[in-house]
Design goal:
Radius of gyration: 21 Å
Transmembrane segments: 20-41, 53-74, 81-98, 104-123, 144-165, 185-206, 227-252, 258-279, 286-306, 312-333, 354-378, 384-402
Largest sheet: none
GO molecular function: transmembrane transporter activity
Strand content: under 5%
Helix content: over 70%
Pfam families: MFS_1
Number of domains: 1
Low-confidence stretches: 1-5, 170-174, 424-428
CATH topology: Growth Hormone, Chain: A
Keywords: Membrane, Transmembrane, Transmembrane helix
InterPro entries: MFS, MFS_trans_sf, Sugar_transport-like
Mean pLDDT: 81
């Protein structure tokens, strides 16, 4: 008989539910940021290196803002910082659309603003999830959140893609102007959604982290394993967000086709996420994580092997499954390690969130750097074809590291429990 996990919405606090609603509203913005900003740059510059520069600017802005956020939390309510993070994503898009020319300086500034947005959003979101959930509910939390996100991600791209194409009524420059006007309409809608999400979020009650030291350079050996996973995760993030848009625009040259391809795969991914989130338990995380990594490797393998329209479709389909499957396992693993070590080392939870972000940054920089080196010294097609495959192979190392981490974590938990029982007995 199947052992069904008895976890549901009733297990969440009101604030956790509001956080889910807020993130669901903001989820309507994320596909636009992840996909169509990159396609806008490609359409108006036809230069993949500019897309990667934009992504690098984002990744530089994120850890810097994570660090600044640690100080801001001492004086500013976490609600305001989280809300500002969402709104800045709209500001970044407005700035991008106001550029007369897609030049390197403009792209860098837009990327840094978006990086600040992500930094404020993710730094505070990670803490809010940590503070409002327990380990036993996190599989369901991330499963439900990812299910809602993927459902939205199956609708938004196809709607936006074909809306953009409806603006392409002419040829050449005239047609491009029509599409760019449609991009500007979408940007204003995105800005409105970020404001709405910010308003809804303020109905929840959230405590800010303790005003303690949050910058450390020495950590427990278990955290070093977590950082290894973070670097490998960052490798893929280095350009995996923009790679789909670059591949789709190269082989299909249509935002409509880009949106349709993403929507089809997202429907399947949404169903998988709901099932995994509802019925999986903490003991299943390594298996789920491994499946996600294998899907990612297969996506990069078929893209490199075929490198045509069929290869891109297979790549998109597998990637849309791999990313949420990885997240539903990775984030609970990360938060459980933070729970454990923050109590043992008596440190602010945010210190681990900040340090983790720097691990991701190193990986992102290496991932994006791999693409740029291949693109500049060989050519862009080779970079699109083989950089992904290189990273897909390296990502498989995460399975071994995750297995070691979970084993060390279990040992440490048992040792901690034994110590607490001894102290309790001696004090009795």
């Amino acid at each position: 008989m199947i052992d069904l996990a008895k976890v549901g919405l009733k297990d969440f606090t009101r604030s956790a539910k509001i956080l889910i609603i807020t993130n669901t509203i903001y989820a309507f913005v994320l596909p636009v940021i992840d996909i169509f900003v990159a396609s806008y740059i490609m359409r108006n510059s036809n230069d993949p290196s500019k897309v990667i520069l934009y992504q690098l600017a984002i990744y530089i802005g994120i850890p810097i803002t994570f660090f600044i956020n640690g100080y801001l939390l001492n004086n500013i309510n976490i609600k305001r910082l989280f809300s500002l993070g969402m709104i800045l994503s709209g500001v970044s898009m407005v700035f991008m659309m106001s550029l007369d020319e897609i030049n390197y300086i403009g792209i860098a500034v837009a990327g840094l603003i978006m990086g600040m947005s992500f930094g404020l959003y993710w730094a505070n979101r990670d803490y809010l999830v940590l503070a409002t959930t327990k380990d036993k509910t996190r599989n369901f939390y991330y499963g439900l959140e990812t299910f809602l996100y993927t459902i939205i991600a199956s609708i938004v791209p196809v709607m936006i893609g074909w809306f953009l194409m409806s603006g392409n009524e002419g040829e050449g420059k005239v047609g491009n102007d029509g599409v760019n006007s449609a991009y500007r309409v979408i940007t204003m809608i995105v800005f409105g959604i970020t404001v709405l999400a910010s308003i809804v979020f303020h109905f929840g009650k959230y405590e800010k982290p303790k005003s303690e030291k949050f910058l450390y350079f020495k950590f427990h050996k278990l955290w070093k394993k977590m950082l290894q996973l973070a670097v490998l995760k960052g490798l893929a993030q280095g350009f995996i967000v923009t790679a789909p848009a670059m591949l789709m625009m190269k082989f299909f040259n249509s935002e409509g086709a880009l949106g349709s391809a993403i929507s089809i795969g997202a429907v399947i991914a949404a169903i998988i996420m709901l099932i995994l989130g509802k019925y999986s338990k903490p003991k299943h995380r390594l298996v789920i994580f491994s499946v996600g990594l294998i899907c990612f490797f297969l996506a990069s393998f078929f893209n490199g092997l075929l490198f045509n329209t069929t290869g891109v479709i297979i790549f998109m389909f597998l990637l849309l499954i791999a990313r949420p499957v990885l997240d539903i396992a990775y984030f609970p693993i990360q938060l459980r390690v933070i729970d454990l070590l923050s109590s043992i080392e008596n440190r602010n939870e945010f210190s681990y969130i900040l340090n983790h972000e720097f691990g991701l940054f190193i990986g992102r920089f290496l991932g994006a750097g791999t693409f740029l080196v291949i693109a500049f010294y060989i050519n862009t097609d080779i970079a699109l074809r083989y950089a992904l495959l290189i990273i897909g192979v390296l990502q498989l190392l995460s399975i071994i590291i995750a297995k070691q981490l979970l084993k060390q974590q279990e040992t440490l938990e048992n040792e901690t429990l034994t110590t607490k029982n001894v102290i309790k007995y001696e004090n009795a």
